[in-house]
Each structure stands twice: as C-alpha cells, then as structure tokens.
Amino acid sequence: MSVMEAALAQSGVVEIHFDKVSKTFGREGEGKGVFRAVDDLTLDIHAGEMVAVLGRTGCGKSTMFNMIAGLQEPSTGRVEVKGRNPFAEFDWFRGKMAIVFQNDRLLPWRTAIQNVELGLEMLDRPPEERREIAQGWLSKLGLAGHENDYPHALSGGMRQRVSIARAFATDAGILLCDEPFSALDEMTGNRLRAEFSELVRENGKTAVFITHSIHEALQIGRRIIVLRRPAKIALDERMPLNPSRDEQDAMRARIQDILSE
Amino acid sequence: MIAERDSTAVRGLKQVATALAPFVVLAGLWQLASLGLPRYLVPSLVDVFWRTLDIFADWSQFSSALATAGRIMAGMVGAFVIGVGLAFLMERSTVADKFLGPTLNFFQGIPALSWVVFAIIWFKGVEPRILFIMVVTTLPAFAFQILGALRGMSRDLLEMVLSFRPTRWKMFRTMVLPAILPDILTSWRVNLGNASRVVVVAELVGATGGVGYELLQQQQLFDMAGALAWTLQLVFFVLITQKIISLIETWAFKYRAQSERAI
Fold first, then answer.
1. Scanning A15, A70, A144, B118, which has the fewest C-beta atoms within 10 Å of its C-beta?
2. A119:B175 CB<8 A
3. Taking the CA of residue A103 as centre, how many other CA atoms within 13 Å lie in the half-sphere pointing to its CB?
4. How far is it, in rounded angstroms, from Cα B32 to Cα B75?
5. Who has greater pLDDT, A192 or A209?
6. Domains of chain B by range and CATH?
7. Positive or negative CA dihedral for A182, A186, A187, A191?
8. In chain A, what are the domains?
9. Which residues does A contribute to its contact with B (CB < 8 Å)?
10. CA B247: distance to chain centroid?
11. What is the pLDDT of residues B237-258, one digit of tens each?
C-alpha cells in the first residue's frame, strides 16, 4: 500500500455514498414490465479505496455505475459523490470523475494523443499543457511513438491503453471502470490490470471497478462487493494486504457460492 | 522499383480510361448521329465545342453562367442553414419532430414547378423568387439527412464525451460535428444535383439571365448547339463542385481505415 493510499484510506472520508437507493425501469400501468435494477442499496466508498463490484449479468452493476457517474437518477433514495448529487450537479463533477469503459470508445477521427487530450480540452487547459500531459501518459502506458496513430491503426490492447491514458490525464480523483479489460485476451488483460492497479495506487485515486470476473476482482480490488439481483449487497469484504493464495482461494470459493445461488 | 512505378502508372492510366470510356462512347454516338441528321436536331460536337468556348470567352455570357452557379449556392446554403436548425430542433424535441416531420414530407411532395408559380405570385423581384424556390425545394432533403445523421451518432461515443461534462459548444465541436460531417457532405452531393435541375426551371420563368434564361433563348432560336453548350455550363459547375466536395472528404476523412478488398 502506498503512503498516499494508506493516508487516504485511513482518512475515512466518504467519497461515494448510496443511501437506500432503488432504481426501477418502466412504470406500472404502461403495459411494459417493471424492472427493478437496484433495490434499497446502502453503501459507502471511502477516498482512496479500490473497490471491485462483482455480480452476474443483469444484477444492476451498470445501473449502479451510471448513477455514480450521474448518467442515471435513482428512483428512490440518495446517491452522493463528494457530498453532491452527481445527476443534478452534473457539470460540477467536470474533471473530478473519469470513466474507463468496457470498450475503448476512442473517437475515430482523433489520433491517439488527441483522444487523450479530450478530457483536458473540456477543462480548458492550454494546448501546450494538454499535449505535454497526454504525451506523458501515453509514454507511461508504453505508447510512445504511437501518438499520431489513428485508432484503427492500433491493436485492441493499445486502444484500451489510450482510453486508460485518457481517463488518467484529467487527474480526476474518482475513477469508474466498467469491465475495461473484458474484451482483451488473457495475457494483455492481465498485464493491463497490473499496470492499471499500480497507476491507481500511485496516484491515490478512488476507483470503482465493475466486473463479472472473480479473477479480475481478486486481482484488482482491495475491497470486494458482490451484488445479487437486483443489486443487493451479498458480500462486502476488504481484502488483506498481500493476500496469501489460501486467502484468495477462500474468497474465490465464497464468491462462487454466492454467485451460484 | 521501376517495375512497381510502371505498374502504378499503368493502373492510373487504366482508371482514367475507364472513367472516360462512357463519355467517349456517348460523344462518338452523338457525332455519328450528327453526320446523318439535320444540324438543328443533332449538331456536330465541333459546333458545340465552339459555342461552349464562346460562352467562356465572352464575359456577358459567362457572367450568366456564374449567376446560375451563385443562385444554386445561395439557395443551398440557405436551405442547409435552415435544414440544420430544423434537424437539431427535431432531434431535441418530440413535439417539434411530430410537427415538422409531416410538414417537411408535405413540402417534399410539392413539384418544383408549383413552387415556381407560388414564387411568382408571392414575390416581386426575380432574385427573391429564385432564392425562395431553391431553398424550399432543397430544404426537406437537407433537414432529413442531417436529422438521420444526428440520430445515427454512436451512443457509446456520445456517452463517453458526455462523461467529461463538456459544455454544449464543446460537445458540438468535439463529437457532433465530426460525427455528422460525412452525412453533411453526402447531403451536399445529393442536393447539388437536385438544385442544378431546379435552378433551370426557376430561371425559365422570369429571370433575365442565367443558364435557364439562356436555354429559353436557344429554344426560341432553335439552336441545339447553343442549348447543349449552356447545359454543359451547368454540368461543369456540378462536376467542379463535386470535385471540391471530394477533396474535402479526402482531407477530412483521412482517419478512415482503407480496406484492401472492395465490398
């Protein structure tokens, strides 16, 4: 655990707060089925925590993610990020939150470096500063020499690296990741996960990492939350520092039991 | 190396030859027909060539061709600006979409000649009449094409840009404009053909200059070579503008991957 990470985790500052949050889609009487994606969820995520949220497909992980990102509003209850409502105060979070998506979502008309600069443009950073920061992140992620390549000329792993660089470039305090390595082959995925964890730790970010892979959750999460349909917490455990293989196996078995119920 | 350069040159020549072949065949057939038919029906291509050159050389005639080009551009720019506005309105508001969609469809069903009659009744001057006709006849296509482009934008990319909380202007500049640009250019290509056909009809009625007016003069003089020469002015304008659009496309879409195999 880095000094920064330890300091942040011990600070006990609540960064993300869910208070009896429910989210339903569709309305009764409209002829369509009502789907409850999140049900009475209460949860606190502290500054500097790296949380892996795990659950089967359709368990409401993405809905929870979208509510933190301010893209969806809870039907009942309250979501707060840094003490504010991310949906109502959407613009306030400019530069304070960054997202790494499942697929790289690079703008095809922009080169790698221009894609990394995107978030910095939204923050009105001067062009020279943008370029310098973007260049630095691309180099850090092993993409030096590919700055002027368009996305179509990059491999899947390289594209995902660019999207990680784009998220880190804004230096946002909160990182939201929606299964960013699920589309990559195992080797590339493992390497990127390790690099990503290191970067999050080094930079003292609060990270929420959505995944459906137990392996990924154990590799990345310092705290593991398992959701059961509809987005109810079935397990919420902090992993020990440098867990032994036995501890990892025990956790894996517990998660498998919950997910197979 | 030399062999590679030679094969590239041969390929280039083949492409030019393939592109020119249909025109050469058409010209050959026309010239053949001109040998057996009266001159006032099918004039020799040599006559057409000299008449075309006359128009280029004589400013009073060439300015007439330029006036038509100007009218086409003015009408298209007007229709494009209004069309973009309407498309954004329809995309943002369901009420606007429900109202404007059927209205534009209704407009599309009105023949260009009817608009000419309406314009003569409603407007006094020649230029406002032509501008009105050009705008109303090309407006629906622009509006629908831009609307289609807005609706076809990738939701994933929109959401990604939105996650950075852009201002409305930055959202437009970084995401919306580059995403819809291919459709904008296509809409210009398509509407250019429509506009060049409509402008002639508009100029036939009431204009004192322009390709349509000149065509009417040639008809009255029974001068087929002149009629063809004036028609070619319009064709040249369309070809030049299409070439400019192609150059813009080449520059703007250089990011696109090139497939070695055609569809």
1. A144
2. no
3. 9
4. 39
5. A209
6. 45-252 (1.10.3720.10)
7. positive
8. 3-96+172-260 (3.40.50.300), 106-171 (no CATH)
9. 69, 71, 90-91, 93-95, 97-99, 101, 103, 105, 107-111, 118-119, 121-122, 150, 152-153, 170
10. 15
11. 999 999 999 999 999 898 887 7
